[in-house]
Amino acid sequence: MQKLDTRIxxxxxxxxxxxxxxxxxxxxxxxxxxxxxxLGANAMDDEAVGKVYAAKGRPSDNPxxxxxxxxxxxxxxxxxxxxxxxxxxxxxxxxxxxxVVPARPEVSRVTTGGLDTVAVRMPDNxxxxxxxxxxxxxxxxxxxxxxxxxxxxxxxxxxxxxxxRIDAVIQGExxxxxxxxxxxxxTGEVPMILRPGIIxxxxxxEALGKEVTIDPAILxxxxxxxxxxxxxxGEDYKPKAPGMKYKHYAPKAEMIVFVGEPEKVRLAIxxxxxxxxxxxxxxxxxxxxxxxxxxxxxxxxxELRAFDKSGVDVIFAAALAxxxxxxxxxxxxxxxxxxxxxxxx
Length: 345
Prior knowledge:
Shape: globular
Oligomer: single chain
Strand order of the largest sheet: 1-8-2-3-7-4-6-5-9-10-11
CATH superfamily of the largest domain: DHBP synthase
Number of strands: 15
Largest sheet: 11 strands, mixed
Structural class: alpha/beta
């Protein structure tokens, strides 16, 4: 692909106008959100969105989330706003919630990964909301990283991955959440979580006054990936949300997730680390507090990227309880490790 001179913008009104002009012309601009940095393109333009897939090295059947700034923008993307959709918008927008809804014909099927549904959210970041309003475009915005690498939570993470591949990066604040949004499928009778996030099943059920289900694929741990990093789900599997089909978030080093009672896991990691160090390997350890999964979510991708920078040979990670926000962290952790799991008895 053609090498670009990637510009770094600040957050002034002039910077936002310049970034919006690039988007209107079909270019690519990385933007900050409360979850992770997104890579923006005009969601209605096949060619512009195609550039996102090329810049990231992203499979073309992996759908993108479209970012909007105002409720009225949703009518450009879908036919109607149901009572359930409105309840979730009122409770969680702007915020870390994405809804999968029926897509209007005008929405680029390059953006939707060929599906007749579109994933939409309103980010909780004033800089990016102003960018969307200035551009007067809904923005396709997958994470602004090379496909398969840990998601970016700072502008420098984006620059490390995509310098020369995109037109510009807006240098905003580091992301306050640190993992991607919760994705909920609103196209069936019962809302279903397709990707867990900081907004939990319990919070969604409370807002709707009814139970929300979880896609069984989230809880199922596949046995293997093929050579292309594709989960062994069958070639005809069409993911409705990002990250459901492909290996994701992987650091450069081998990574092992230790699962079991916390004290036994700590001892097992310490013993394994000693052996590896004696063998001459550089070891990184991820051990989060089970009582604070929000901090684990905030730190997880940044820690993986720090390990990449420091050149560790192997990463040992202690599993969290798979409930609430812990489920979202473990969803990323297992995928980062390619489901390389060590059961500690």
